[in-house]
Design brief:
There is one protein chain. The protein is mainly β. Helix content is 0%, strand content 40%. The protein has one domain. The strands form 2 sheets. Strands 3, 4, 5 and 6 form a 4-stranded antiparallel beta sheet that branches. The chain has a two-stranded antiparallel sheet with strand order 1-2. The two termini are 23 Å apart. The structure holds zinc ion.
């Protein structure tokens, strides 16, 4: 099993995220219960929806996700893709 441990290097706030048995997902929204806040992901979009007939033709790419420590309001980590 792969799990994710998130530790704030400033205040020591820590959470261990263990995936669900089925599907191996971690619910990032639950980080708020453990003193971390996830910003809205930064997503790049290529092309204008007006130029396409199908929404599936629009290319989108996840660029980064920033996770903030709510306890010390100071430290954060940026996950780049
Ligand atoms: Zn902190």
């Amino acid at each position: 099993m792969v799990k994710m441990i998130l530790i704030c290097g400033t205040c020591g706030n820590e959470v261990e995220m263990v995936p669900h048995q089925v599907g191996h997902q971690i619910q990032m929204s639950k980080l708020v219960n453990y003193g971390f806040r996830v910003d809205t992901p930064s997503i790049d979009k290529y092309g204008d929806i007006g130029d396409y007939e199908d929404i599936d033709d629009v290319d989108v790419e996840l660029r980064e996700i920033r996770i903030n420590c709510s306890k010390c309001q100071d430290d954060y980590i940026v996950l780049e893709f």
